[in-house]
Amino acid sequence: MTLAKSAVEAYVGLGSNLEDSVDHVNRARQEIAALPGVVEIAFSPLYRSLPVGPQDQPDYVNAVLRISTELEPLVLLRELQQIENQHGRLRNVRWGARTLDLDVLLYAQQSINEPDLVVPHPELSKRAFVLYPLADVASSDLQIPGLDSLSQLLAACPPDGLRKITV
Question: N or C: which end of the chain has fewer CB within 10 A?
Fold first, then answer.
């Protein structure tokens, strides 16, 4: 496992809409925080959102996890993909239903454009189910590399049926 020279802050998006979605998201939170070189800083409330893509699927449960990590970006991605696989993630249909979806949303203030990883996440600015939980764990003046401040992105992105879940 490759460690970065020093710890950086990163944000991970979590989503699920199959089986017990709340349980998948909560267990993934614990599994990410248990990774060597990762420390949880904050976890957003859970949100329920409408699916993106095919509409013949259940609503999603979404959250954002703010971490400090010593893992390099691609190593973090691979670890997240292993967690998805342990939760039975299948990649059959683009934007299809899934037991667990984990995305590296932000990694320090880096812009990354690799075949397997694009950071900031390419759809981040358009997705209420990412921006609103992100705002729960980040400063509103957080600058999203190549885009704008989080507060400006929020102002341009209505909640579109997004609602907090009370458990």
Answer: C
